[in-house]
Amino acid sequence: MVLEVEGAAQRDRQLRADLWLFFITVIWGSTFVLVKDTLSSLGPFSLVALRFTVGLIALMVLFGRRLRRASGREIAAGALIGLFLFGGYAFQTVGLKYTSAAKSGFITGLSIVIVPIIAYLVLRHRPGVGAVLGVVSATAGLALLTLKADLSIEYGDLITMGCTIAFALQIVLVGKFAPRMDAVVLTMAQIATVSLVSALLAGYSESIILPLPLEAWAAVFFLGLAATALTFSIQTVAQKSTTPTHAALIFSLEPVFSLVFAYLLAGETLTGRALVGSALIVLGMIMAELKR
Description:
single chain, globular, mainly alpha, 12 helices
């Protein structure tokens, strides 16, 4: 009886965690149109640096006192996670110079396949039947959503695979460290690392033309506060109660929400192929939730 109650409580915690991850995926999906527009005023590394700096300042104002109790292991773990998160952004940005946005989106989304493998090797988390079926369905959906007739492998595709592996490692490492460390400290160290490395690269390879348009500053603050400080804090806390594979499956909904917001905000067309692909991704997440 006690085991049944504990099992039900664990399922409730995982469901709540998955719902929070769903919420932040909606936020991330809403940023694609915003980022695309803002890149006309800022270089990619400059935008990432400003975005993560704003997010870091917000967290420092709210939770800076937590750093006084932070251990060196927590700071080091957060910095390691941050390096892989930055690697994801860097490989994705460079890869986009040599491949299409559609193929980049698909290859990046393949982290849902890589995460269960890395999670098993690092955490010994064996994915359940529902998770495996969900990964297959979501991968098929991503292919319909992003790939065109030309499936040839380009130089940029190989670079973008680095992004996929980096994002997968970020998800798995959050799952490894978050359950036994201070989530806020991990998040601040992670965001600070991305901010610092991005700023160094931006200073080396880009220049900021001031003053920036008001719209660009508004975008930077939204990205920094909502899509960075809030979302990565929630991710770190939520992954205390759910598996990396579940997190990756939920994050695979990001291109679906990107499509919806592009339709609502930018007037882009929704094709039948895109709708079927989106449905398969949603089905994959549902299968993972129902067959635990």
